Amino acid sequence: MILTVTTGLHRGAVITLHEPVCRIGSADNADVWLGDTGLSPEHLVLRFHGRQLAVEAVGGDIVVNGQRVTQGTGLRCTAPATLHVGEVALTLTRPATPSLLSALPRLPAFTLRWRRSLNRAAPVSALLVTLGVLGLYEFVDVNQAGANIGSVAPHAEPASDNSRIDEQAIAGARQLAERAASSPAQALRAHLAAAGLNTITLSQHDRYLSVAGHYTPGQRVAWEETQRWFDQHFGSRHVLLNAVEPQPATSPPDLRLSAVWLGDNPYLIDHHGKRLYPGAALPSGWVVSSIDAQRVLLRHGDEQYALTL
Fold it and tell me: Does 233 have pLDDT greater than 70?
């Protein structure tokens, strides 16, 4: 069964389901993990029985082919099916069955020859019979030639260098393709750097990748686009464990000044009578950056706050 995400944060992801049971939700151990809001850790369960499909609404309501399935109930249907889970839309389809005729080997294209003395006024049936006989003879000749080539004596001349070069080129191309397909970590790191998401770190494990860190409100769109890009390119083969969270809003500095000393070694005196020199940290995480005659400058990461004197 093939699961396709048509709307939502992971739009465009295509996953091939091989197991008879598939659990979908926001939990890290779910078979299909979705990072969209409003999803339960185990929101729904899919069970496959031959051509039948059973959908169970475990953690919340879902809509299957336009029919609402309330939490704690289920529905049996056949593929293809469309599922709506909040703002996420999923489609379940069966893989296309290859045609029996397409699996049969194709005969080589033969060059038909006929004699000039062939009477063009002969009946059409005679012409068709003649062409069929000639094609059969050529098919036999080609097979005999292949058999003769395969039974060359041990002292025969070796194959030309061109065949060896072709084999090397094919092997090199195959290695490049396998290397490109097995490097999602390098591709994701480059994509994160290009998007300016430098506060998000990537870790590579045996069977999955994980990301952690935070993003600012202005980087939310870039992070969502990065997740969609990964799902479209690697989501069907690699699992990405997401532990990235939005950066919490910074509270204003909790500094209450009682006095400021502007000598050779300036410092502040807070409401507890404690001296705060440049570099001192406040309980809220703000740091006294500098003290001069006009202002006191405090910093918190990339943010700064100025107290005018």
Answer: yes
